[in-house]
Design a protein that fits this description.
Elements: H1 3-18, E1 30-31, E2 33-34, H2 39-45, E3 47-49, E4 52-63, E5 66-70, H3 71-74, E6 78-88, E7 91-99, E8 103-110, E9 114-122, E10 128-129, E11 139-151, E12 164-171, E13 174-178, E14 181-194, H4 201-218
Parallel strand pairs: 2-11
Antiparallel strand pairs: 1-9, 3-4, 4-5, 4-6, 4-14, 6-7, 7-8, 8-9, 9-11, 10-13, 11-12, 12-14, 13-14
């Protein structure tokens, strides 16, 4: 993957996730677990291609209470997932995402001893809503009925720190309306992730802008 395509993917992903919001909003804080023994599993599931770290995801999707997608049963994870991370004050925000302008994933807000986890789905059309009587939106971010976050090490919350772990969740129910048909969804998901060295959102955006300018100059734009 070239530097330009890497930058293009990073920029598109930032745009695609912006309307979902990167920080999960919930009052449901839960503790996370530190277990160094999961590192071998994370290393097996998370790969790096030309300097780009690609995370992995398993999921079971329920539509109107029937299973319509199940990578657990197939035994083959989705291994081309993106992970976006930022360090904002005393909070580490991690977003794992499958797809680009349309797709789904998880959001983690990681604090000193607790975390908030949500599942989200995103589309390029206004088809989603959390509750049956809500207005349709491009994306929906929903709480989890259950979740477990396991990290290989306790984060230091310092610039340059790398966070790796496994998130397991079962989402709340939400709705998709397409072609006049309303369907109820929920998601069981397991995500394996390893972040890039932590930096603030401001630093990350500046780096993307600088690389964009450099690539434009290098190609005569």
């Amino acid at each position: 993957m070239t530097n330009i395509s890497t930058l293009f993917i990073s920029t598109l992903l930032l745009i695609a996730l912006s309307s979902c919001g990167q920080t999960p909003r919930s009052l449901d804080n839960g503790a996370y677990v530190v277990d160094p023994s999961i590192k071998a599993k994370v290393d097996q599931k998370v790969k790096s291609f030309n300097g780009v770290t690609m995370s992995s995801m398993d999921f079971k999707m329920f539509e109107n209470d029937s299973i319509v997608g199940d990578t657990y049963a197939k035994g083959k994870s989705i291994d081309e997932c993106m992970t976006m991370t930022s360090l904002d004050g005393d909070t580490i925000n991690i977003t794992g995402f499958m797809g680009m302008f349309a797709g789904f994933g998880y959001q983690i807000a990681l604090f000193k001893d607790t975390c908030i986890v949500r599942h989200f789905a995103k589309s390029d059309a206004e088809i989603y809503k959390h509750h049956k009587n809500d207005s349709l939106e491009f994306g929906v971010s929903v709480p989890c009925k259950t979740y477990k976050l396991t990290l290989t090490n306790k984060p230091t919350f310092k610039k340059g720190d790398i966070v790796e772990g496994i998130i397991e969740l079962m989402s709340d129910e939400y709705y998709e309306v397409a072609n006049g048909n309303e369907r109820k969804y929920k998601m069981q998901l397991t995500g394996y992730f390893k972040t890039e060295p932590l930096e603030s959102t401001k630093e990350k955006n500046k780096k993307l802008a600088d690389e964009w300018d450099k690539n434009n100059k290098d190609h005569g734009h």
